[in-house]
């Protein structure tokens, strides 16, 4: 069984009730954080997961809303890890990730210096291992495998989706993307597809062109649902709602998805949890 928790279902627009984009995946005793939007560690704490307990941080792309708390994850996984010789934080993302991580470590350079000066048992900066991929198998440990494929969020490029498998269960995390064949292939037959969605039917009516622009490179609810249908997944889990559904509107989102996909449809607030079983 793979357990998915939507830690943050928000978007770049700050929302009092929704943290930024981030999904927790627990599989085979391992814990993966997929993207690390605003407030992610507060939400993770709500389900008993701390930064030091992460098996890996997986980044779909380097948009600010998806990496807003990268510094917090790196620093907290270091400062709040009391093991004598903790292993490096594993970070897997698209090309560009190493540069962003290095710049983040530099931005926190003063903080890192203060802590090393103050605590005798902190003698070196946060240990991190960054792995950049656009395709292929990126993880194979103790029964959990992770495969990556390119997505299409241009002009943001490269961007990747992840397929996590454990004991016959499989989950695909698409991130931000328009429909594309490489995502279809990655998601084929998966137990669940976690897909970011925007309501293009609403967003196109916003007066600001900068808001309308986001329709170019995201999937609508119907497009994400059509991807789920083409790939034959069991469950579509929508997240990263733009605009955020107001209470009572969830059924409308579900019916829009159901026009394209006849499997199980999930959406919810932060901390919404879905169990994905072997098919
Ligand atoms: Zn994005
Ligand atoms: Zn986004």
TrEMBL record:
NCBIfam families: PRK00055.2-4. Its EC number is 3.1.26.11. The active site is at residue 65. Homodimer. Belongs to the RNase Z family. Zinc phosphodiesterase, which displays some tRNA 3'-processing endonuclease activity. Probably involved in tRNA maturation, by removing a 3'-trailer from precursor tRNA. It catalyses: Endonucleolytic cleavage of RNA, removing extra 3' nucleotides from tRNA precursor, generating 3' termini of tRNAs. A 3'-hydroxy group is left at the tRNA terminus and a 5'-phosphoryl group is left at the trailer molecule. InterPro entries: AtsA-like_MBL-fold (IPR044094), Metallo-B-lactamas (IPR001279), RibonucZ/Hydroxyglut_hydro (IPR036866), RNase_Z/BN (IPR013471). GO terms for molecular function: 3'-tRNA processing endoribonuclease activity; metal ion binding. Gene3D superfamilies: Ribonuclease Z/Hydroxyacylglutathione hydrolase-like. The keyword Metal-binding applies. Residues 19-218 form the Metallo-beta-lactamase domain. Keywords: Endonuclease, Hydrolase, Metal-binding, Nuclease, tRNA processing, Zinc. This is Ribonuclease Z. It comes from Mycobacterium basiliense. Its cofactor is Zn(2+).
């Amino acid at each position: 069984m793979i357990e998915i928790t939507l830690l943050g279902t928000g978007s770049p627009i700050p929302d009092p009730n929704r943290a930024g984009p981030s999904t927790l995946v627990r599989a085979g005793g391992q814990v993966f954080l997929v993207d690390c939007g605003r407030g992610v560690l507060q939400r993770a704490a709500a389900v008993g997961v701390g930064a030091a307990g992460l098996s890996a941080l997986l980044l779909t792309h380097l948009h600010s809303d998806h990496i807003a708390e990268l510094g917090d994850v790196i620093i907290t996984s270091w400062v709040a890890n009391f093991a004598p010789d903790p292993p490096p934080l594993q970070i897997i993302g698209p090309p560009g990730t190493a540069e962003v991580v290095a710049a983040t470590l530099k931005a926190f350079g003063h903080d890192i210096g203060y802590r090393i000066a103050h605590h005798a048992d902190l003698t070196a900066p946060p240990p991190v291992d960054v792995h950049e991929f656009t395709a292929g198998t990126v993880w194979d440990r103790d029964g959990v495998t992770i495969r990556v494929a390119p997505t299409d969020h241009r002009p943001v490029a490269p961007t990747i989706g992840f397929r996590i498998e454990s004991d016959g269960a499989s989950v695909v995390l698409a991130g931000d993307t328009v429909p594309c064949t490489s995502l279809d292939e990655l998601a084929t037959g998966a137990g669940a597809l976690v897909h970011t969605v925007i309501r293009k039917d609403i967003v196109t009516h916003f007066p600001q062109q900068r808001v309308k622009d986001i329709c170019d490179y995201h999937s609508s609810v119907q497009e994400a649902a059509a991807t789920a249908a083409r790939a034959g997944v069991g469950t579509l889990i929508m997240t990263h709602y733009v605009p955020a559904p107001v209470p009572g509107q969830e059924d409308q989102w579900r019916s829009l998805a159901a026009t394209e996909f006849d499997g199980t449809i999930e959406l919810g607030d932060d901390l919404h949890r879905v169990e994905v079983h072997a098919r």
